Amino acid sequence: MTSIYARVMPKFYVNVLFEEVPEDSFFIGGEPRNDFVRITMDHIARAFPSKEGSKRFFDAVNELITPWVKDRGFDWEFHIDETPFDLWSIQGFYPAREGTQDEKR
Length: 105
Fold this sequence. Notes:
Largest sheet: 2 strands, antiparallel
Helix content: 10-25%
Shape: elongated
Oligomer: single chain
Distance between the termini: 22 Å
């Protein structure tokens, strides 16, 4: 996943977190599921520039996760939330803007 994001931003902006959910704690439509993977992504450092860009990203992610999810018989979905860049800080500092020298360091 990091390599997909690294095409457009520094790797240190990418955080991946795996949260295991007990088998008896996941339901869809009121029915228990133990064959489902839910992926959420928060975009803050970048936003999609176009619908074509978001489609390319979704296609790349679906291709990446296929061996780990689809090929193992799991159903899945993912979604992305985009937080405005101006509503973000890291340890009290505002991150450098895209493409600036500060961001490249």
